[in-house]
Amino acid sequence: MKAIWSSTLCSLTGSLTTSVSFISPRSLSILRPAPSFLFFDHRSLPKTYSNNHHHQSRRTTTTTTSMAASFSPEEARVPPAIQMPTPPITKFKIGLCQLAVTADKERNIAHARKAVEEAAQKGAQLVLLPEIWNSPYSNDSFPVYAEDIDAGSDASPSTAMLSEVARLLKITIVGGSIPERCLDKLYNTCCVFGTDGKLKAKHRKIHLFDIDIPGKISFMESKTLTAGETPTIVDTEVGRIGIGICYDIRFQELAILYAARGAHLICYPGAFNMTTGPLHWELLQRARAADNQLYVATCSPARDAGAGYVAWGHSTLVGPFGEILATTEHEEATIISEIDYSQIELRRSNLPLAKQRRGDLYQLVDVQRLNSR
Amino acid sequence: MKAIWSSTLCSLTGSLTTSVSFISPRSLSILRPAPSFLFFDHRSLPKTYSNNHHHQSRRTTTTTTSMAASFSPEEARVPPAIQMPTPPITKFKIGLCQLAVTADKERNIAHARKAVEEAAQKGAQLVLLPEIWNSPYSNDSFPVYAEDIDAGSDASPSTAMLSEVARLLKITIVGGSIPERCLDKLYNTCCVFGTDGKLKAKHRKIHLFDIDIPGKISFMESKTLTAGETPTIVDTEVGRIGIGICYDIRFQELAILYAARGAHLICYPGAFNMTTGPLHWELLQRARAADNQLYVATCSPARDAGAGYVAWGHSTLVGPFGEILATTEHEEATIISEIDYSQIELRRSNLPLAKQRRGDLYQLVDVQRLNSR
C-alpha cells in the first residue's frame, strides 16, 4: 500500500473528511487579470513561449527520444495535475441501487432507504443512488417534487433520510439526484453524505439534458432547470470522488478535469434513455474510466416502460482499465461489487499515459482551479 | 447538402487540395510572448477574468437557464473551434485494407498495391492502410526497413508505390505507416497522397508506444523511434482528415483538437495487440467518434500468430453516433463501406454538444494553433 500510493496528500485539502473546495466566493471576489498573465507566462504556455530566449535549443531537445523529458507532459494539465492522494481505504464494497421510482414521493424515500440499508448489510461502505430517484423524470414533476436542500430536514425529506441513514449505518452515500429548489431556481442536484451524516458536497448538474432526436426522443431540461456552476469533487472516507449527473458524462473534459484533481472514482447517477442508452451508456462509462485510468460507477432508475421517460437501466461499475466489473439489466436491482484502488496505480504503471501526454501540443485548462490560485 | 453545410471554408486553408498548415518555421521564428498575453486576456480566459469590470453581472447571467448564451461554450476550445468546412464530396466509399505483413518488403509493397487496386475497383475513393505495413513490427526491423520519404522514389519505394497508385487510380490514400529515416532519426510515419499522386501530408506518430504489462506485453518504441512534433490534419478530395497512429488514439485531446480544427474524419492506422486489443480497440474508436461526433476509420495489419508482435486486427469504420458501420475479424480482409458526411450534421443537431460545452469551466488549448496566430 505505501509503496503504491504517494504518502503526501495534496495541499488542496485540509483533511480527507473535508470537501475539496477549489473556488470560494472570497477568491472570486478578488480575481484580477494580472495573476493570470503571470500564470500563463510561466506555467501553462508552451516552452516556445515561456522560454522564448531558449527557442533554438528547445527545438533541438524536442527531437530526442525521451518523450517524458522533452514534451512537458506535466503541462498538459493547467494548472498541473494533482497527484492522487492516498485513499483512506484501498479495498471496499460499493452498492449501486437501481431503484424503481414511482409518483409517490414518500414511497420513493422509504423504498430508497430500504435499498441503502440492504446494501450496507451486504457490506457496502459506499452507496450510489440513481438520478432523480424521488420523483418522476419530467419537467412537469421537477417543480412539484423539488426540495430546498439548504433549508434542512423539514424542507428536504429526501436528503434528510440520506443524512440519517449514512450516520446510522456509518457509510458514505452519493445520493443520486433529486430536483432542488433554491430561491426561484430549480436544479438537478446530487448530495454526498459522509459517515457522520454530514453533507459533504452538493453537485448541481452542469450540462443540462437538451436533446432532440426526431421520432425517438426529445427532452429539454433547460425548460425548468438551471445548470450548476461548478465541478464537484469531494474527499470521503472511501476516496476522492468526482460527481457528474447523467448528461455530464458526455463531456469528456469534466472527467479529465476530475482526474487532474486526483479523483479515484467518478460517480455518475444517470438515466439514459432507450435511444441513446443502448449505444452510448456503456461506451461513455468505459471510455471515461479507460482514458482517465480511474473507477467509474453509474446508477440508473429501473426501467418503467409505462413512464413518460423510459430509463435504460444498466447501472455499472467500471475499473481503471475500462473493464466492466459489475452491471445489471434494466429491472430493479442492487449491485454489490468491490473497488480496489491499487488497480489504478497498476494500470497507470502499465500504460503511463500521464507521462506520455504532449503538453507542448494540447492543454486542458481547469478554469475555476486556475482562477482560484 | 447546401442547407446542411456551411458554404464558407475556414480561412486556414487556401484550397481544399492544400494541406492545412497551422505552424510554419517562419511563424515559429517570430513567436513573442506579448500576443499570447493579449490572446489569453481577450479570448481564452473565462469571462470572470477578461470582463472583470462586469464581474457582478456575469455572475448573474450564468444562473439563467440558457446554457449556450451564458456559459461561453465557444471558449471551451482555445483558439475557438473552426467550423467544419463544406466537404468536396458528401457520400463516398472508403476501403480499409487489413493486410498480412511479411518480412519480405518487396512482397509487402506489391501486396499492398494489389489490395489498394482491388479496393478502388470496388469503388473506394479513399483507401486506408495499416500501421507498419512494409515491415515486421519490431524495434529490430524498424532501422532495416526504414525509408527516406523526403528523398523521393528511389529512397522510398513504399511511398513511391502509394503515390503512383493514387495518381493512376485517382484516389486518396492514407498510407498507413512505415518506418521513416530522416537524418539520424527514425519515425513511425503516415503519408497522405491526393488523387494527383502528390504527398499532401506526413504524420509522424506523436505518442510513442511505450507500455509494460508484465507477463502480457512489453514494447518500447522509444528505444528506436523519435516522436513526431505536430498534429496532422489535411484537406483532401474526400474531406478534412486528422491523422493519428495507433497509440495516438489513447490521447483523447488529439481527437478533440482535430474536431476543433474542423475534421470530418480521423484515420488511425493501428496495430493493437492481443492484450489491449480486445478491451480497448473498439472502445477507443467508438469513444473518439461519439465524443467528437465525426467519423473514425482504423486499419490494422492482419493477425500473424507466429510474429514477434501479434496484431489484434479488427479494422473498423465508426460513424459520428459512435456506431460501428463496418468491421472485420483478424484475418486479411478489405472493408468497403460508405461514409456519409451529412450524418455528422444530423448527430450534431440531435445532440448539440458543441453548444453545450462549458467554456467557463474547462478549455482545451490547441497549443501550436494558438502559437501560430
UniProtKB/TrEMBL annotation, chains A, B:
An example Gene Ontology biological process: oxaloacetate metabolic process
InterPro entries hit by this protein: C-N_Hydrolase (IPR003010), C-N_Hydrolase_sf (IPR036526), Nit1/2_C-N_Hydrolase (IPR045254)
GO MF annotations in UniProt: omega-amidase activity
PROSITE patterns in the record: CN_HYDROLASE
Keywords, comma-separated and alphabetical: Hydrolase
GO cellular component: mitochondrion
Domain CN hydrolase: 92-341
The keyword Lipid metabolism is assigned to this record: no
Key word Plastid present: no
Coiled coil: none
Name of the protein this chain belongs to: CN hydrolase domain-containing protein
Lineage: Eukaryota, Viridiplantae, Streptophyta, Embryophyta, Tracheophyta
